[in-house]
Amino acid sequence: xxxxxxxxxxxxxxxxxxxxxxxxxxxxxxxxxxxxxxxxxxxxxxxxxxxxxxxxxxxxxxxxxxxxxxxxxxxxxxxxxxxxxxxxxxxxxxxxxxxxxxxxxxxxxxxxxxxxxxxxxxxxxxxxxxxxxxxxxxxxxxxxxxxxxxxxxxxxxxxxxxxxxxxxxxxxxxxxxxxxxxxxxxxxxxxxxxxxxxxxxxxxxxxxxxxxxxxxxxxxxxxxxxxxxxxxxxxxxxxxxxxxxxxxxxxxxxxxxxxxxxxxxxxxxxxxxxxxxxxxxxxxxxxxxxxxxxxxxxxxxxxxxxxxxxxxxxxxxxxxxxxxxxxxxxxx
Length: 332
Description:
Layout: E1 9-15, E2 21-23, E3 39-42, E4 45-48, E5 53-58, E6 65-67, H1 86-113, H2 123-149, H3 174-200, H4 210-213, H5 222-252, H6 258-272, H7 279-296, H8 300-322, H9 327-331
Antiparallel strand pairs: 1-2, 1-5, 3-4, 5-6
């Protein structure tokens, strides 16, 4: 039975659901309304029915009880109910980083034993190999992530959530907010580029990042283009958003407010790309991804934004390549 809280907060406990019997918390409190709600548990999760232990606050103005809560109606300000401790967060973050690095090293060492010489491969074969590499890496990192957090099941509904339902819901529609987030990210990144150019006095030079290294494959053939779209538009967004937003950002809300967790995860996301010259733009993109995820609590939202960003760049460069533009000069 729930315990009675001190003034100005009190506890109303409803018992004996069949006879609708009701126990008041303290005789000194008089109020007109009865609360007949029931709290029960299914698979470790609390549900509400016809009787419930309800925590309320006392309103000194009119003498009536009001539900107790944090008063935060904006989803973007609410924290996740993180079930794992800091040890699990630290170990899992380290394991994901190491598995990403080790997977690449193991694959590079395995290629000669399989009789594969990357130099002798055609562009299509290189694109297919890159797609396979990204697929293995994604499976390995996510496998470790889910394995290390599996012991805390059943998890809250808004952790690791990939929900296709209600894509255009005004409050939590994943596709609607993906569109809003993508438009916001485009505008913010454009303004960031203008600001950097204004303060530095010159156009920022692009570093030799993953996109530049993929340049020979861009527009080379349909097979290469499809492989690149699969890597940048499906596998990479799925991996990065699940790790950086689905796990790391949500876990940070155990200690800091959600907007602060968005900023921290955006900074880690930008640093993880190992391109210091592009940190401002990546940070802005990471912030948009985090805010969109906080709004919908659905990983499909940041995954869609990330996929649109990556695949949009690939498709645009492919189009320019076909039109005869020197995309190497454009990237630099």
